[in-house]
Write a structure and sequence with these properties.
The protein is of the alpha/beta class and 244 residues long. 50% of the residues lie in helices and 18% in strands. The longest helix has 29 residues.
């Protein structure tokens, strides 16, 4: 099995790579941080077919790197898009540069990659494209609506792509809940947070089962069903949902 991972040095993506390595998969890693990428590649050893360092905000460079990776790997069984950044919500409300950066890294960069991956997998006639979205995209909340709007847009894009590539190619949308990683280090932890290892195992299981949309962990499906259905006037009165 050949697995391509974009955003490979995120904590969750790195744990996904470790699981695939343990299953004998061959990996191609693409990430932003050269130091982290080199360290992960050394750890994964001979399972790594290749690696590329690129800034995902530079879509031209990213697409060049992606095409190079696809040529190098040949047949790709799984491609995982995992890059993302929570960013600073308060700053994004008053500084367009921060809002734009969040939209670029969480939505535009993923769409750019999918414009290459979609035709590639369509021509290949099989395989799975998996993309990490977020439960934040299920409903706009004051604490993260810039990030959430990007992930919500990504989820909608993936719905269309999934129907377009069906039935030969699977498109898996991973609606990820809070994970205890360095990206959330400044967030107060509660029972909704899970470990990166658990999230990674759930993601690999969803990919293996060729799921369309999956909440990780699964309990978020029921939580977000309630949150989506709440009338706005009631939602706004519930501080734990609509507060900062």
């Amino acid at each position: 099995m050949n697995v391509l991972i974009l955003g490979a040095t995120s904590t969750v993506a790195a744990d996904v790579a470790r699981i695939y390595r343990s299953r004998g998969a061959r990996l191609y890693l693409v990430a932003r941080s050269q130091a982290k990428l080199a360290a992960l590649s050394r750890e994964l050893g001979a399972s790594v077919l290749g690696e590329t360092c690129v800034d995902f905000l530079d879509t031209t460079a990213t697409l060049t790197a992606l095409r190079f990776a696809l040529d190098r790997v040949g047949v790709v069984d799984v491609a995982l898009i995992a890059q993302g950044d929570l960013g600073n919500q308060l700053e994004s409300e008053v500084d367009f540069a921060e809002a734009e950066r969040q939209l670029l890294v969480n939505y535009v960069s993923a769409v750019a990659q999918l414009t290459v991956l979609g035709p590639f997998f369509e021509a290949q006639g099989r395989g799975t494209i998996a993309v990490i979205s977020s439960v934040a995209g299920e409903r706009g909340r004051p604490r993260n609506y810039t990030y959430g709007s990007a992930k919500g847009g990504l989820t909608i894009y993936l719905q269309g792509l999934r129907s377009r590539l069906w039935p030969n190619v699977t498109v898996t949308t991973i609606k990820l809940g809070p994970v205890d990683t360095p990206m959330t280090s400044h967030h107060e932890k509660n029972a909704s947070f899970v470990s990166s290892e658990r999230a990674a195992h759930d993601i690999v299981r969803a990919i293996t089962r060729r799921r369309g949309e999956v909440f990780v962990p699964g309990f978020w499906r029921f939580v977000m069903l309630v949150v989506r259905c709440l009338p706005e006037r009631l939602f706004q009165r519930m501080a734990f949902l609509s507060g900062r």
